[in-house]
Specification:
The complex is a heterotrimer of chains A (157), B (443) and C (802). With 443 residues, chain B is α/β, with parallel strands linked by helices. Chain B has 17 helices and 11 strands. Classes of the chains: A alpha+beta (157), B alpha/beta (443), C alpha/beta (802). Bound molecules: flavin mononucleotide, iron/sulfur cluster and FE2/S2 (inorganic) cluster.
Amino acid sequence: MLSPQAIEKIDYELTKYPADQRQAAVMSALRIVQTERGWLSKESISEVAQYLSMPEIAALEVASFYNMYDLSPVGKYKITVCTNISCMLRDSDEIVSHLQTKLGVGFNEVTADGKFCLKEGECMGACGGAPLMTVNNHAMHEFLTPEKVDEILEALK
Amino acid sequence: MATKIKNLDTTKPVMTDLKGQTLVCLRTLTEENPASLATYIKLGGYSALKRIVTEKTKATDIITEVKDSVLRGRGGAGFPTGLKWSFMPRYFDGTKYLVCNTDEGEPGTFKDRDIIRYNPHQLIEGMAIAAYTLGAHVGYNYIHGEIWQDYETFEAALHEAKAAGYLGENLFGTNFCFNLYAVHGYGAYICGEETALIESIEGKKGQPRFKPPFPASYGVFGKPTNVNNTESYTSIPWIMQHGGAAFAELGVPNSGGTKLFSVSGHVEKPGNYEVKMGMPFSELLEMVGGVWKGRKLKAVIPGGPSTAVLPAATIMAATMDYDGLSKVRSSLGAGSLIMMDETTCMVKALHRLSYFFYEESCGQCTPCREGTGWVYRIITRIVNGQGKMEDLDLLTDVSNNISGRTICALGEAAATPVLSFIKHFRPEFEYYIQHGKSMVEPQ
Amino acid sequence: MLNIEIDGKALEVENGSSIIDAADKLGIAIPRFCYHPKLSVAANCRMCLVQVEKFNKPLPACATPVADGMKIFTRSKAAIEAQKSVMEFLLINHPLDCPICDQGGECDLQDVAVAYGTSGSRYTEEKRVVFNKNIGPLISTDMTRCIQCTRCVRFLQEVGGMMELGMVGRGEHAEITAYVDKSVNSELSGNIIDLCPVGALTSKPYRYSARSWELTRRPSIAPHDGLGSHIEVHVKDNKVMRVLPRDKESINECWLSDRDRYSYEGLNSPDRLQVPMIKHNGNWVETDWKTALEFAAGQIKDITNEYGSEALGVLVSPNSTMEEGYLAKQLANGLNCGNVDYRLRQTDFRLDGKRVGTPWMGCNIHEIEELDRILVIGSNLRNEHPLLAQRFRKAVTNGAQLSIISPLDNDPLMDIAHKVIVRPNDMVNVLGQVLKAMSGLQRLSLCLPPSLNELLAEIKVRPNTQAMAESLAGHGAELDLIAPKVGIFLGNMALSDPRFTEMYSMAEAIGGISGAKGGILPAAANSTGMHFMGVMPSSTGMHARAMLEVPRKAYLIVNIEPELDCQHAALAKAAMQKAECVVALTAYKSSALEHADVLLPIAPFTETSGTFMSMEGRVQSFTAAAKPLGECRPGWKVLRVLANTLGISGFDYETSEQVKTAIFGGEKPSAVVWRSLNNNLKQLVEIQVNIKHDGLQRIGEVPQYNADPLVRRSPSLQKTKYNTKPLARMCAKQMDQLALVEGEQVLVRQDQGSAVLSVRLDNHVAMGCVRVAAAHEASVGLGDLMGDISIEKLPSTKGVSA
Ligand SMILES: Cc1cc2nc3c(=O)[nH]c(=O)nc-3n(C[C@H](O)[C@H](O)[C@H](O)COP(=O)(O)O)c2cc1C
Ligand code: SF4
Ligand code: FES
């Protein structure tokens, strides 16, 4: 069951579209539910599909097409590091290996305590601040150095 | 309003050196609180909209003004904005839509982000003027998912504008209505392509549509829709304030106005720089503090990876405008300069870019879905020391077979880096294949 | 019209056609995978790239509209280069497993690769592997072979009406799948096998059983519903291996329902009766034809001699051929017996003798999609006429407004403009309301005859029926249609209802006012044919129901299992039990034929020649696709010899063709049929509109895969979700009223019969009704399909949730 908070937020998104186009809100709805539950299970996707009166498979198509939706658990904090060219030129490799040693996981792995998951990201549209990463999709940290990464991790602990 | 909207963070960015810049789209950067409505109004904001709407300026006059400005689409293709606007059907029984493309996800591109976070109201005004001109009553700004904080900033600005009477019903006491909404992507480069973006707004996966029909006749929810880039719309209020000719005047023939350049990679001061069209590349390089660590420039991708890479010597002689870059067989694209110094391994750089296109192909059309993976695997093999000399011709051939045979321009975009890297840096590739290691990287 | 040129050949084409359509017209083959004329254009495979003058890039022929003066080159150097490169891309990740692929020999990819590919591959990297999906009992998947053309996805969405497959993931990882762990449930699902241009989707029952080149292909006609779909029967070693559609644009287009596609499994059922059998001291003994026929004839003779000819009842399945029906009737006539009928699932025979001609669907099948306003009365379209439902869907997609009056609210997978879901008894009142509302509409400005007016006097029009009436009259929100094309159709639930006469008369009156086409949607492959030939009681004879109510001493039954195929299962069972002799012409041994005395093995439709008349009156003959199994004989031959043995004259037919000639009096069928098809009534019938009825009513729907003996024996179809055991299905309110909980066992009674069934919540059922499926052994104790029913709680059982 979608939580009342989630429904309220989805209903707000629905105000953006014509009444007969509920499916249009699926991008937001999936984002809202994922933010609340950490990731998108099969049940979550079905609930969203039902709420928006759209076929489940169409909701799954969307959930599986966009990188920022997670279809498996990603721990409490999902850290996504951009490794694309502009970041790579500014040593994102160093940030990645620092994170990997520090957390003891590789890409797409979750730490044993279930706290952190590391992901490789594509261009985030903020290359001026390279190297950079996001935490749980919505918080961006730019101009990273190993020291700055440590501070961020510390704050999340 | 059911949902609480986050307060605007209107504080000024830390990293800006405005010297040498000509501010049109980022004109609020001179102020303390650049993103606030008060700042924008202080700089004359919304006055063009108000005048147009209350004086009932003729749509055709506005389009003429935009044509005169020689504003060309800032999303990458450089299509003349005034001309595009004239394609929208005037009479249509039903809703017409206006869409702004803030999905920039092409590596090295981050200019639209600064517009929505530092000067959102100018974009809103630009879209409102476009809506008035094109007879659209509903608009969407589709914002790249990863810049979430900026999405929230923009949404807050929308509420601010609505509360102040610049958006909504019966604006300025006339019968003109315009509702503008922020919507977001969630991690798919292809949604920058306008028809994929439209699909995404409709709540579908972002697969480009076959064109024709173009959005002007079949866009959002199947209705006539005009799509422009953020920077294109944001230029409109200035044009309507100062006249098309004045805007054209800022630039060079065929490339009117100013342009935001996103500078990333091996330079001292990466960031966005708004300068007049036609500025020599060398001057721009100086402005961004030159190549970092005192190194030498090796190569530059001038407009994002979908534009051909250029060796330093070539681009040093070029000017930054549409014609200037096509003269040297590349293009201005979205104005995303990726700077590479002498230590850059071109094989590895291409490897990363080929991964990007492989990863971001939407997967619907055969040449792109299959070809981008093939290209990436060949280059991976080369990087792993298992390359063969024939691979270079194969890469060229496969890329040519993708290019021009796909539904959308991602096919060309994926082929361009392969073709241009091999063309300009072939010896480096040959060296890698022969020795199984990079020519430039210390081993 | 536009003038274009393709490969140097000039052509005039219609505005708006695509290059590929134009080329097809000229017979110029452009290779393709994603394009299909019946589906939306995806233009994603890129195989159809051609060169067009003045364009520097090759263009997809499927998605490019022609323009006047266009010069197109499909085999120029540039075109071939583009096509070859796409072929190369398609093959790099495609497994080279043609030798073990079911599609081998009939694979588009294989064919095009031979024509457009190169011999060696330049691809030396690893190939992609995609996991297979389990999408149900009918379709087998091999997803590594998929080329992402999305034909299957588009079919289910656009033709099937529900998006059941999708392409998830993106780029090279994009794959076709159903939603997590779900199967594809469309009753048209098999078509995606035909659509798949590679071997990714293949038939599960057919899998690995034959190679396409080993099969003999014979045209035939589908034997279940009244659509008359054209099929092709594929035979290996005299065994039917599969059934595929044949293109017939005006009937089935290029599609086939799953029922018509997979029921062939029943042909190879272990139940098949291969030799004649006689019951001897309560035991079945195999015998030879001569003995069996003489025994059967002797019994019939004895009984008719002793009790009179009216002691015999002849029941013929509406799925039998015209030849079989005709001879069965002639046989009865020869014995002077008027008790013949094919209307096994009907209770209301008040219209007998009042009709002008043969009732039919009232229009051509393809006309349905052109309708503007549609009223469907008492039909669960997708269950009764799975493929025809798709035509209605097209109409609705084209903008038609669909109205439904029914006791069941099942989703037809198309938009419904207006619906009223009520008890069967109340449907008459609702129709009366619509009629009354229509007569009051200004633009029709019609007055009803005083008799009707009087009849409707008591009736109060409600807003929803008013809206329905306005819709049928062509009123629209923005625009009134000047001359709307209206269609009104009555389905199986109306046909089986005790108040069918009322529903029919009302529908006729509404149709008269609105100028509608339409009529009944006959249930079975040959219902219309049987009616046309008058396989019905003589003026003094008994109809199907009466023959069971007042049991006969002897029965001759053709191609039926009485308790499963008759309206009143319990009566049918009892009648057979009581009879002194039951002679059954049947393709199957069956527990439902336990009370027969002689079983004469007849050939199913694939092993005989014969004729069906479809719901639109089309007379379609077919020949045998295989030799009869064992000692089976075509039904018409058995009837002929039986008649001969009975000493009836006039049975000298040598071929089924001769029987057909006799049926149509030597004339061309089409010349005769049109004179007969007519839904009008000769005279007014007495009807009552406003009958109060408070008891519970049964909705005895016949599930589509239980409709006749053949389809009941297809194991694969029985594995689908449409094979549900009869349950006592009710809406929540009804359950509350009876204080029942889901899963609870209840005693369901009809007349003297009963069944213990489990309660199931089904909000598609109208209040006041219990939906109990028929044609299933679990409900053979019950009575009329659409009769009164009662429910008693069983004291001892506790509710277990199902
Ligand atoms: C693969 C691909 C990615 C694109 N990404 C963007 C983008 O991020 N932002 C953008 O404005 N246009 C992008 N475009 C171009 C758009 O399709 C479209 O041309 C543009 O938004 C039109 O606006 P303009 O005329 O103002 O430039 C992209 C095109 C392609 C083929
Ligand atoms: S070119 Fe690539 S991204 Fe564009 S439609 Fe084709 S598969 Fe999708
Ligand atoms: S048939 Fe034209 S692109 Fe597939």
